[in-house]
Write a structure and sequence with these properties.
mainly alpha; two-stranded antiparallel sheet; globular; 6 helices; 125 residues
Length: 125
C-alpha cells in the first residue's frame, strides 16, 4: 500500500479492524521490502496502480485483490465480490481511475503514522 495515501490509510484501518485472526500484514510500497515484493511480482513500485495482495504465494492486484481480501474477511465483506460481474479489464479500469486520483479524492495521510497499535503491529517496513 502507498504509505502516504488517505485511501490506503483507510484501507489499513479496515484491515486492522476486520482481520480478527491477524493474518494480514501491510507493507508500504515506499519501503525496501515493499519495492522488492512489487518488483518480484513484475510490478513497478513507482506506479500508482501497484497494490498487491499475496495469497499462498500468488500475487493478486487491482480490484481482484480487494475482492479476495473481502472474501477472506467473510460476512458482509464478501459483497465486494459483486465487482466480479465486471470483466477483468473493466475492474482494472475502475481501480485505475481511483488509484491515479487517490490523493485528489482522499488526500494524503500516512498510515505509518497512525497511532492505532492494531495497524502498527501489521506494518512491515
Amino acid at each position: 500500500m502507498d504509505a502516504n495515501c488517505g485511501l490506503c490509510a483507510r484501507g489499513a484501518t479496515w484491515i486492522a479492524r476486520n482481520d480478527t485472526e491477524e493474518k494480514f500484514r501491510i507493507v508500504p510500497v515506499q519501503s525496501d521490502l515493499g519495492a522488492a515484493l512489487l518488483r518480484h511480482y513484475g510490478m513497478d513500485p513507482e506506479d500508482p496502480l501497484s497494490w498487491l495482495y499475496i495469497e499462498n504465494g500468488v500475487a493478486h492486484t487491482s480490484l481482484d485483490a480487494i475482492i479476495r481480501v473481502g472474501r477472506e474477511f467473510g460476512g458482509i465483506w464478501k459483497m465486494l465480490g459483486v465487482f466480479n460481474v465486471f470483466p477483468r479489464g473493466a475492474q482494472d479500469s475502475l481501480y485505475g481511475v481511483m488509484a491515479r486520483n487517490r490523493y485528489k479524492f482522499m488526500g494524503r495521510k500516512s498510515f505509518c503514522d497512525l497511532p492505532d497499535p492494531r495497524i502498527q503491529s501489521r506494518v512491515l517496513r
